[in-house]
Design goal:
- By secondary structure, this protein is of the alpha+beta class.
- A three-stranded antiparallel sheet has the order 1-5-4.
- Helix 1 crosses helix 4 and helix 3 runs antiparallel to helix 4.
- The longest helix has 20 residues.
- The relative contact order is 0.24.
- Its cofactor is Mg(2+).
- Its main location: cytoplasm.
- It catalyses: apo-[ACP] + CoA = holo-[ACP] + adenosine 3',5'-bisphosphate + H(+).
- One of its GO terms (cellular component) is cytoplasm.
- It is found in: Cytoplasm.
């Protein structure tokens, strides 16, 4: 059963300009240390760093929409971190207010699964999040 759905588009150029203007102040406010480490490993190719951050920014926005709160009611940027499963598939690791909200919207006897897809076609990055409730094992 789907309990949340969110999508977001992000202009990669906007993220690139924001990084140039605010640097670590922006990056530390929005991204987890794991996300920053992953992005920095991709910094070699032209435009790859900004595109990596833009996809993750879009994922956080999409997740906040899927949670039904947006970035308010105790849900903060760094409460949602894009991580990869061993298969390489992206998903989100929720902490803090985002994890609390996920628990609140998950029906009794169910567990939540977060499905995430990321893509970009410069200058646009896109993310879609589906939160699914599955019977508890």
């Amino acid at each position: 059963m789907i309990i949340g759905l969110g999508s977001d588009l992000c202009d990669i150029r906007r993220i690139e300009k924001t990084i140039a203007r605010f640097g670590d102040r922006f990056l530390d406010r929005v991204f987890t240390p794991a996300e920053r480490a992953k992005a920095e490993r991709r910094a070699g190719a032209p435009g790859a760093l900004a595109a990596t951050y833009a996809r993750r920014f879009a994922a956080k926005e999409a997740c906040a929409k899927a949670l039904g709160t947006g970035l308010r009611r105790g849900v903060f940027w760094r409460d949602m971190g894009v991580v990869n499963l061993p298969s390489g598939q992206p998903t989100l690791n929720l902490t803090g207010g985002a994890a609390e909200r996920l628990r609140a919207i998950t029906p009794a006897g169910m567990t939540a699964a977060i499905l995430l897809t990321l893509t970009d076609e410069p200058p646009i990055a896109e993310a879609m999040v589906i939160i699914e409730a599955r019977p508890a094992e």
